[in-house]
User: Which sequence fits this backbone?
């Protein structure tokens, strides 16, 4: 009987992904991960204390920031590339 | 008739030679990429332990390139010298740790994992001892290289910094294949005799790529907190392209 040319992808998942996670979770790597800097703290938003003109200005700034972030994200997508394998 | 068969056999051999010559460039580029990544990882407190693995991967790739050059020569294509350093694949706007993570995911979780799938598949059909030995040696090493990426991703996930990858996945995946990857291939590239030379016929390679993404890479990324919606949508779109091209 002719052998299948297809590998067991389930087996690959176990070998690669779980292997990589185990690698990250063992010994010095795990210790380093524990010591890794905490996520950047989010600045708490102050709600309900600002006056309306200030709110309007803040909303304008937020919209501009959102637009800037959107453009930056689009630029990242344009610049992103991949690595060819076999 | 036999002249036609000889011509087809010669074409298959030439395609195999070209494939091994291409792999030679892939391996040399990978050597430079892993060395570059190792230097960057050494400077990152959260990932420095991965640096020696990247250095070792670079040395492996140099050895692999030698094997690929030898097989290319056996099949009729001589290669020599060095290749240009591979381009940066991470977008310029990323933080250094994010950029290293992006490149490790592109090089290891996608490209090296895909290479393991190809090598595993080829090992089931290659018979010639020298070819089998090379495929086996490379498969063993590439498993370690793929794991390096998955380990880097797991560390990044613990830091809560893998979310940025989701929207970049389509570009990363698109860049991992040739432009004609999802188009119908020349009949010579579908010839099953390519397997004897350690090369997958085009449609088999494409099917394996899709299967590896669906069953290994996407689930692995999702396990590390990466939203694969955009990546999956890209793949679905490309597969529609294949279907449309094959519809009379």
Assistant:
């Amino acid at each position: 009987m002719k052998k299948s040319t297809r590998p067991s992808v389930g087996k690959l998942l176990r070998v690669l992904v779980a292997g990589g996670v185990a690698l990250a979770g063992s010994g010095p790597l795990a210790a380093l991960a524990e010591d890794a800097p905490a996520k950047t703290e989010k600045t708490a938003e102050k709600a309900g204390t600002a006056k309306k003109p200030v709110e309007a200005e803040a909303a304008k700034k937020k919209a501009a920031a959102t637009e800037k972030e959107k453009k930056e994200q689009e630029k990242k997508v344009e610049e992103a590339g991949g690595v060819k394998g076999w | 008739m036999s002249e036609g068969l000889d011509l087809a056999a010669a074409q298959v051999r030439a395609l195999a030679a070209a494939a091994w010559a291409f792999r030679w460039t892939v391996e040399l580029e990978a050597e430079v990429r892993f060395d570059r990544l190792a230097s960057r990882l050494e400077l990152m407190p959260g990932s420095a332990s991965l640096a020696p693995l990247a250095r070792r991967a670079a040395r492996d790739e140099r050895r692999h390139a030698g094997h690929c050059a030898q097989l290319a020569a056996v099949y009729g294509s001589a290669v020599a010298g060095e290749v240009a350093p591979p381009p940066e694949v991470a977008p310029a706007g990323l933080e250094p740790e994010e950029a290293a993570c992006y490149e490790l995911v592109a090089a290891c979780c996608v490209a090296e994992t895909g290479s393991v799938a190809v090598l595993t598949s080829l090992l089931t059909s290659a018979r010639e001892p020298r070819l089998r030995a090379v495929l086996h040696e490379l498969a063993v090493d590439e498993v370690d290289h793929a794991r390096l990426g998955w380990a880097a991703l797991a560390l990044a996930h613990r830091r809560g910094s893998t979310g940025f990858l989701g929207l970049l996945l389509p570009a990363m995946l698109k860049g991992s294949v040739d432009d004609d990857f999802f188009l119908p291939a020349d009949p010579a590239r579908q010839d099953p005799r390519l397997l004897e030379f350690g090369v997958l016929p085009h449609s088999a390679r494409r099917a394996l790529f899709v299967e590896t993404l669906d069953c290994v890479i996407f689930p692995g990324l999702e396990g590390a907190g990466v939203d694969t919606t955009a990546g999956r949508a890209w793949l679905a779109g490309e597969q529609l392209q294949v279907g449309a091209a094959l519809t009379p």
About this structure: Chain B touches chain A through 76 residues (CB under 8 Å). Chain B has one domain: 2-246. Chain B has a mean pLDDT of 94.
